[in-house]
User: What shape does this take?
Amino acid sequence: MSIYVNKNTKVITQGITGKTGQFHTEKCQEYANGSNCFVAGVNPKKAGESIFNIPIYASVKEAAVQTGATCSVIYVPPAGAAAAIWEAVEADLDFVVCITEGIPIRDMLMVRNKMKEKEANGGKKTLLLGPNCPGIITPDEIKIGIMPGHIHKKGRIGVVSRSGTLTYEAVAQLTELGIGQSSAVGIGGDPINGLKHIDVMQAFNDDPDTDAVIMIGEIGGPDEAEAALWCKDNMKKPVVGFIAGVTAPPGKRMGHAGALISGGADTADAKLAVMEECGFKVTRNPSEMGKLLKALI
Assistant: This one.
């Protein structure tokens, strides 16, 4: 079992003919069951052609109808990425992963509002992961995104993070200790994104094959605190927590567009305090995440 995607998930690559889309689609194809999972690409100008034996279609809707795909991954450049997300949502896909970094906030606001409106009108709910995220992996089954596959090992620990590199760090530490992962999810560092920590924690809590979770956050925004408060009342599994940016001064943006302290509850110290109060085992040292988790289980 895994959360959101598994070895039977059929995936469309939006932006498959671009340099980034080509590079990562090939890597994802080579990982585990990837050759069966990646079934379509989209580029209106190259419809009817194929790349890596993957047929290219004119639209996401056509690709989904022809192949039965329920998921897409987006490597479209920033200017067109929000429109690509909306095309996938309009095609009623279950799950959309947007890797693209640098999408204008106004574009994301418009897409998010349209997604909410569609749902409110009784339309299908599409889950969005990202943008500006590394993607999602269920080890030994499927990798959708840009994470290095070789550091992952199949197992029973969930990982969720706003930072791509810290996702890899946590996973590599676990693997080195002989501890495998059920799924690793990078939710992305933009201020307006799809799935939040709380959504992924709920999914891990409901997953019978996840025994414990590492949750990694950053300065800026209320997401980690909201997830921690939900976990206090609902989470049945042990959680290790880490927040990046302990040394960040207020008002300075660190790395991600969403990692900006406005002051008060969104500093690293404030978030760590909330997580600790809610029963998380927290660390201020990222190199200890794996060891702490091992001690908990």
In short: The radius of gyration is 19 Å. The chain is about 35% helix and 20% strand. Residues 135 and 249 are 29 Å apart (CA to CA).
